[in-house]
Structure formats: C-alpha cells, structure tokens
Amino acid sequence: MMGAFALGAAQMADRRVIRVLVKSALVSLALLALVFWGGFAAFDAGIEWLAGTQSAWIAGLGQLVAAIAAVLCAWLAWRIVAMAVLNFYADEIVSLVEERHYPAFKPRDIPLSEEIAMALKGAARALAFNALALPIALALAVTGVGTAIVFITVNAFLLGRELQDMVWARHPKGAVPAAPGRKSRGIAPLAASTRFLLGLAVVGLLAIPVANLLAPFLGAAAATHLVHRAAARRAGNSRDGHDAL
C-alpha cells in the first residue's frame, strides 16, 4: 500500500500529471463554490422564512448561521465533488501510470457518455450510503467520536471500490498479458481489506488542506498499481499451477 502511494507521488513531477491535477483541482473548487453558494442561499432563505426580518440584528445573525451551515455542507460534499470530477480525468491519470509502469497492458478508450455515467453513479452511491449512515452517525454523536468513525468507515469502503472500478473500466475481460500459448487472465479484484485501506488512506488525505487537492490523483495512481500487482500475482499463480501440473 505504501509503495503504491509512493510510486504515485513520485510521478507527480510529470508535467502531464501536473496539467491533470490543475484541471481537476480548478473544476472541483468551482463546483465546491457552487455548493457553498447554493447552500448559503437555501439556508438564508429558510432562516428568513422561519425567523422573519423584524430587525437587522436578527437578519445578520441568520446570515451568519447560513454561512456556517453552507461551509459545513461544502466540507461534507468535498469528497463527493472531488471523486465525481476525478471520474472525468481518471482515464488520463490511469493512462499516465500505465504508460510508465505497465506498458504491456492495452487499455480501451472510455467514451464521454460512459465517463459521465460513472461519475453520476459514483456520486449517487456516495449520497445514498452517507444518507443511510446518517441516523447511526447521529445516534453515536454522544460518544464524541462515533459519528466520525461511521462516516470514515462508510466512505473508505466506497472510495476503495470506486478507485478500483476506475482501473477496471479501462480493461475488458482477459486484458492481462499472458505467456505465449497461455490463456489471458482478467483483471483481478482487490481483496476487501486492500480496498478498505486504499479508501481509508484517501479519506485521510481528503481531510488535510492542500493535500486534499492531490488526494484524488494519489488515490487513482495507487489503485492502478494495486490492481496491476494483483493481476500480476494472479497470472503468476496461474502459470505456476499450470507448470506444476
């Protein structure tokens, strides 16, 4: 796991990687600004409707509360926004990693319609599972740490699967190179524990200022290395078993 992230970090000096990082970061920040603006407008209108505008003091307090609530919404939405944007640039990121480290693999080009569908599906899945976890998280709020543990666990599992699927989507079944005369093997699934640790690492990076802008790329790069290593182990074990027979 650490080696996969280290390889991803080492490739960040590549100018092509920097271009992808800048594009994805700017788009993510622009969308986050829209989330904040929409949240502030909605909360401000709701508070004004509930409390009325009898005085400037109440109106000012309402705007302050609306701003705080909007910031909280934007913070909670950052992971969903960042990963949705990453889906649009995942093809470029995975291509750059594979071009440098796994040139034998021949990925397919993903059409824009499929990239949009993947981004929407990932965002919808994240919203749905976080909404389902919300009652449990609120019930555990009295513990002080229970709420954070619930959301971290849920999003770690979601992120691990999403990052793995980003690599899988680029490889049709049987895309793993095999020895001459041997049947090609498909991309191997990551172990559940590996997916969780991958997602957990990215969730941690997303919570750190500045690092959260790099987290999507590092996660996608690390997932590419982990998936390819799993595929190599699977192909190696298959060949060893064939030779033993």
Radius of gyration: 22 Å
Beta content? under 5%
**H/E order of the elements?**
HHHHHHH
Integer tally of domains = 1
Class inferred from helices and paired strands? mainly alpha
Overall 3D shape: elongated
Assign a percent range to the helix content: over 70%
The main sheet comes to:
none
The unreliable regions are: 174-186, 238-245
Give the overall pLDDT as a whole number. Answer: 76
Counting DSSP E segments of at least 2 residues, the number of strands comes to 0
Give structural notes.
The radius of gyration is 22 Å and the shape is elongated. α2 (15-51) packs antiparallel against α3, α3 (56-101) runs parallel beside α7 and α5 (146-168) packs across α6. The protein has helices at 2-10, 15-51, 56-101, 112-139, 146-168, 192-206, 211-244. Residues 174-186 and 238-245 have low confidence and may be disordered. It has 245 residues and is mainly alpha-helical. The chain has 7 helices and no strands. The longest helix is centred in the N-terminal third of the chain and has 46 residues, at 56-101. The chain has one domain (2-244). Helices cover 78% and strands 0% of the residues.
Features:
single chain, 245 residues, mainly alpha, 7 helices, 0% strand, elongated, disordered C terminus, EI24 domain-containing protein, transmembrane helix, transmembrane, membrane, CysZ/EI24
Write a brief caption for the model.
The chain has 245 residues and is mostly helical. It has helices at residues 2-10, 15-51, 56-101, 112-139, 146-168, 192-206, 211-244. The chain has seven helices and no strands.
